[in-house]
């Protein structure tokens, strides 16, 4: 009986967390965990380090300028994962949760050591599934840099009937690349977690 009470409490807390984002546990669908996405992209042999980064107001302001007009970057902690093998950096992944229309989406944006996008993985999506970005659409981000081409109407094609989803993913890519550039050139002011 105690187990059932704890389980119900955990479900209620999870529901409250999703409701704060504008969705509910019934509406959010998880497609892949971040651990699965990290391993699928960077391999089983990689060692991952999770970092909680606390960017300064100045870093956020510089990132907003780099990301471009209309791309929201909040003054809030961000989570990134660095992947290593035999002392060599394989890449960095940024966790980005945002609203598409009224419901949350979480993506993992992978950045190569060179600073270009490696790939984007959709971890969860709360909107109706017909608005979900598909893998073949996401592949157009692979190898892109933070430039004018990384935009809907630039080198990134929109999705018919899912314009908000297309913009949300594109903004997440621009946010991650902008923060990556800023954090790579200065003190990340972060705390590393094992």
UniProtKB/TrEMBL annotation:
Coiled coil ranges (UniProt) are none
Look up the record and report any one GO term of the cellular component aspect: plasma membrane
Transcription among keywords: no
InterPro entries in UniProt: FMN-bd, Ion_transpt_RnfG/RsxG
Superkingdom of source: Bacteria
Pfam families (UniProt xref): FMN_bind (PF04205)
Residue intervals of the FMN-binding domain: 106-177
Q: Which UniProt keywords apply?
A: Electron transport, Flavoprotein, FMN, Phosphoprotein, Signal, Transport
Q: Does Flavoprotein count among this protein's keywords?
A: yes
Q: What is this protein called?
A: FMN-binding protein
The scientific name of the source species is Candidatus Polarisedimenticola svalbardensis
High-level lineage:
Bacteria, Pseudomonadati, Acidobacteriota, Candidatus Polarisedimenticolia, Candidatus Polarisedimenticolales
